[in-house]
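ENTRY TYPE: paired fold submission
RECORD: A
CONTENT: sequence, then structure tokens
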Amino acid sequence: TIQAQILELMQELKEKLADMLRMEGVVNSADQVIRALDETMESKSHVIPVEKKKDGDLSSRSSVLGSTELQEVSNYVNKKVKSLGREILDGRIELNPYEDGSDKACTYCAYKGVCGFDRAVGGYSYRRLQNMKQEEVMEAIQKANLMDREEIRHGS
């Protein structure tokens, strides 16, 4: 019937809209966290970037980190924010925008009219972002955190 077709179409539209609004980023891999974020998830979440395989394990397409890895990322980000804040307070504010393929930091920057960055002027260039896999990023973060802990331990 037409009513059944309309209901089916509305359900399809609802699922497509949910996929379009699906959150990006990283989710804690703990099952209770995933269930709390998407109570209706079966094989693929329409809310968070998580998918499950038939055996119930998380798919490689899932964007997840364990609690320990999330703590490592949090420690790294906190240290980086403090470091950058100190540099700003010390007056060290460099023009150092990134370029990643066609994506450039300047594209949506609210300060591009006053910052003076211009590739046509000698000495200005974009910083190229490295294309790294999640495992490589985690390894670099863990290494940086370890170096920070060693510096603290040795009083540097």
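RECORD: B
CONTENT: sequence, then structure tokens
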Amino acid sequence: SLHDALPIFAFNKDNPRIPAGATSVADIDVEGVTLAVMSGTAQDKAISAAVKTATILRLPTNDETRLALISKRADILVDANDTNQLFTQSNPDWAVAINPEPALAKQGVAFGLPAGLSAQDVEVVNIFLEERVATGHVEALIRKAVDQVLAQGQ
């Protein structure tokens, strides 16, 4: 897929409750860790199914989940990778993100193509997109777009 839409974790890099080198749900699913998530979302369902020990703080809006992390009411923000990327890039002095391995609720991004497009042409589009992902071009475009959004907000 071009850019997977999946929950990732954002947190304060100086938070002592987050183990150094954490890469999985198991690493952060420990007593005393609070995860903030927007109630009723796909991220809520994914993290609720995976977490057994940590506390899940379900809040009604994404803004409230981010404020919970900023205020240290929560240790980790569980949100989609695109919104967490906006958040971490706008707070580079303290916020970091990890993509848990294995991924939680991995979902590909789809493209709409003309209905009359031949199977061969669809395959050419797929090959083109795979090459762009493999060379890092897509990630660079995403970072550039995030930087532009953040610049507009200043």
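NOTES ON RECORD B: The radius of gyration is 17 Å. The chain has a mean pLDDT of 85.
STATUS: closed
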